[in-house]
Structure prediction request, 294 residues.
Amino acid sequence: MSEPAQKTQGKHARPKADFPVLAYQNERFMRSVDARAIRILAEYLEPQTRLRRAGVQNTVVFFGSARILPRDVALAQLRELEARSKDGASPASTADVKAARMAVQMSRYYEDARELARLITEWSLALKRGSDFLVVCSGGGPGIMEAANRGALEAGGKSIGLNIQLPHEQEPNPYISRGLSFLFKYFFMRKLWFAQPARALIVFPGGFGTMDELWEFLTLLQTRKVRHKHVLLYGSKFWKRAVDFGFLLECGTISRQDLNLIHYADSPEKAFEILKERLSHDRFMLQQRPQRFF
Prediction:
């Protein structure tokens, strides 16, 4: 073929088609600011679908610090620091030893959350309403969250973990039931799924995240955006020092009636007694049809 003919053929050659992908399969778009509304909707619909398929009807939510250790782990860390100090080779600082001793003290809350979750799950299973009727739910991470999922597993029941995507990755704890571990990008969508199926909220000592979740629940109850939910603060000494509700009442920023939203407990047995008495008189206990979240 002559050179002019080759040039003519190349000039009129059929261009290669650009095959697009489906919009929801366009990862770049789905991660963009423009697709934020779709991502939010997905964090509404996907958990709803999975919880309905699992048959989950009601939850008891555990909140508390991710930093609280199991008793055996806290003791092991303290003994290691004390041993280093005795050897003299690389003595631990006074601050480190003090923090380790405090971790041992705080570890009682891990063990108490674990025991309370076990008691609640055993009671739920004894109701003969199915293993999904009243399920322990946590934030899915370590600390108090792990203790709650662990206690439910030890009782032979199911539990939920609602994890959150963070800059420093928070891995789901291994005690969450298979198929009931969730991961959220948006805090407000995670809060929705904490609040909507919940029948009770048990708040163990914690930091900013725990406080945020507590105030969210109390505000929803105070303004009657949600009803028939119970708030129990575990560890009265901690909570009465951390939050002075009496001072808020004295200043007129809350009413005396608002204080009725809160109950205190200092042992798993007492907490269980309060929750059992309150939950037993709730309407959901009499419902024969599965709970619909929305």
About this structure: Strands lie at 58-63, 134-138, 159-164, 181-184, 198-203, 230-234, 262-265. The first strand starts at residue 58 and ends at 63. The two ends are 72 Å apart (CA to CA). The chain has a mean pLDDT of 92.
